[in-house]
């Protein structure tokens, strides 16, 4: 649009720029400074204290394992959901609405939901007992059962976080022109070939943003872990929370925050590199 | 289910494939719904319900009393109101600041547009809740620590980039020609916006507002770090989690779920349109 009064767009974006500068850029710089300073002078003391903490290695390992276990499963389920729902005529809206319900559910609530199933007298144990697999109530969520606890947290995360991936992927699938698939079908491509050669490359932008969003959120995992296992399963954000609230040590908490930021940024950059997307399709 | 027109010899094959399709769909629906049903049983079953063994999954012995008892616990109603307050601030600010930016992105070409988009994209790559750590220090200095306004501000950082991207898409969906026609007929820019663009964009903006609400309602970390007495519902539940009995935890979970599920239901039409465009 031709516009002579070019100050108008600046007037329109100025409030949001000012807001983000004050509450995003400034705290970001402050976090980094808090992390790499001690009493106002540059220092690596906070980082050293973080690295020597007994929970540090475990929390790094747990967070990464969780992300590696959860994100691919979510993408796979979301792709299955997208493919299934595209074959449905009437009832499609209702199915999509049910599948998007977890979108409104917080990680804390999701943790509490799965706690009702996985606690000692919960539904999982009742079913296993009914089937004769276990003889008495078994605890799955204590520090003595780290593998069961890991699976419990992963299941709750998958339950909650798949909806957003599904929405992004279904939107991506909606934008794939029907003609492409029809043409491929005419030339004799089977469903598998059509999926791998036509659909998957065309939903690349959707896949990319779903992966970035989900991976960043996976490294932020916190409340679902806390609701299910308390502090039995240390993760990075949980450690940041503990150092800030219980130990009142802002410096170490800030190092954790910076570490999470660096991991998230690295993951984002890797996705941007590996999954090439036509720059015109970026927002 | 739609009727599939098929010839006799492929009918068996097709129907078994349809059977497979529908059992997959039903299984995934159950995967979403059954856990919510079970936590509702837990919330309404009270103390006896929690210790009942083995459980049946049938709604026996449930009543609203345990849930009401939970609501009467000290701090619950207040934290519920605090959550509403923080979400209200988030909705108002992210729309007031985000919608003009979205309009600028949709209608103007200007120097710095790409940098602005980069700023917005950057916020999506960061774990934003982490910003709450240094903010405690500034908030204490400014008197915003332990206030709902302070929580609303940090939640706006989460919701604002989203609002800018989504409203951009919404304004792009309103034909430019309608606006230009209004100018030709003597409307000023502001009049044209108010009379033509705003009414057409309104449903989408309402949907954006609902999303901002849900983002704030569900956020745990920042709210927990930035408040002590004036906690939001999520922050309150997080801090009392280890001390409260099981059925209170389930009641809290149910209370967190209900409003956002209702809101998501209200904007279900916009879900895919919004994310389709904002995820590009």
UniProtKB/TrEMBL annotation, chain A:
The keyword Transferase does not apply. The chain crosses the membrane at residues 63-84, 96-117, 147-173, 211-229, 249-272. Its main location: membrane. InterPro entries: ABC_transporter_permease, MetI-like, MetI-like_sf. The keyword Coiled coil does not apply. It is found in: Cell membrane. Pfam families: BPD_transp_1. This is Sugar ABC transporter permease.
């Amino acid at each position: 649009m031709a516009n002579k009064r070019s100050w108008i767009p600046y007037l329109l974006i100025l409030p949001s720029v000012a807001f983000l500068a004050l509450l995003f850029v400034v705290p970001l710089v402050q976090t980094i400074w808090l992390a790499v300073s001690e009493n106002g002078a540059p220092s690596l003391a906070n980082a050293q204290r973080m690295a020597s903490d007994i929970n540090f290695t475990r929390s790094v390992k747990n967070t990464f394992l969780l992300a590696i276990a959860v994100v691919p499963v979510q993408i796979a389920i979301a792709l299955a959901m997208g493919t299934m729902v595209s074959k449905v005529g009437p009832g499609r809206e209702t199915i999509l609405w049910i599948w998007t319900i977890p979108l409104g559910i917080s990680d804390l609530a999701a943790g509490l939901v799965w706690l009702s199933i996985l606690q000692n007298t919960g539904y999982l144990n009742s079913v296993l007992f009914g089937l004769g697999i276990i003889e008495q109530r078994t605890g799955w969520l204590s520090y003595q059962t780290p593998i069961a606890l890991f699976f419990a947290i992963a299941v709750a995360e998958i339950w909650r976080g798949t909806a957003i991936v599904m929405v992004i992927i279904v939107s991506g699938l909606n934008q794939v022109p029907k003609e492409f698939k029809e043409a491929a079908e005419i030339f004799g491509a089977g469903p598998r070939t059509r999926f791998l050669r036509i659909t998957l490359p065309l939903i690349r932008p959707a896949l990319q943003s779903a992966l970035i969003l989900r991976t960043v959120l996976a490294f932020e995992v916190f409340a679902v872990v806390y609701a299910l296992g308390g502090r039995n399963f240390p993760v990075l954000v949980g450690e940041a929370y503990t150092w800030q609230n219980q130990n009142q040590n802002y410096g170490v908490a800030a190092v954790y925050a910076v570490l999470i930021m660096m991991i998230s940024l690295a993951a984002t950059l890797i996705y941007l590199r590996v999954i090439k997307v036509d720059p015109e399709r970026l927002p | 289910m739609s009727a599939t027109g098929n010839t006799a010899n492929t009918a068996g094959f097709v129907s078994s494939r349809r059977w497979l399709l529908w059992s997959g769909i039903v299984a995934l629906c159950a995967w979403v719904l059954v856990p919510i049903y079970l936590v509702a049983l837990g919330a309404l079953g009270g103390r006896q319900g929690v210790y009942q063994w083995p459980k049946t999954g049938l709604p026996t012995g449930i009543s609203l009393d345990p849930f009401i008892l939970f609501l009467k616990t000290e701090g619950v109603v207040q934290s519920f109101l605090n959550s509403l307050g923080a979400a209200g601030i988030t909705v108002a600010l992210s729309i007031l600041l985000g919608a003009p930016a979205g309009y600028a992105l949709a209608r103007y070409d200007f120097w710095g547009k790409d940098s602005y988009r980069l700023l917005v994209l950057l916020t999506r790559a960061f774990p934003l809740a982490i910003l709450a750590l240094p903010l405690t220090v500034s908030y204490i200095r400014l008197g915003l620590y332990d206030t709902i306004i302070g929580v609303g501000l940090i939640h706006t950082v989460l919701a604002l980039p989203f609002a800018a991207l989504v409203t951009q898409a919404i304004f792009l969906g309103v034909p430019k020609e309608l606006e230009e026609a209004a100018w030709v007929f003597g409307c000023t820019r502001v009049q044209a916006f108010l009379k033509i663009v705003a009414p057409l964009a309104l449903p989408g903006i309402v949907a954006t507002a609902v999303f901002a609400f849900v983002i704030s309602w569900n956020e745990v970390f920042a709210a927990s770090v930035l408040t002590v007495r004036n906690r939001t519902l999520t922050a309150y539940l997080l801090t009392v989690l280890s001390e409260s009995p099981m059925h209170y935890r389930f009641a809290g979970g149910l209370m967190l779920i209900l409003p956002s599920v209702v809101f998501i239901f209200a904007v279900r039409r916009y879900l895919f349109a919004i994310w389709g465009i904002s995820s590009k």
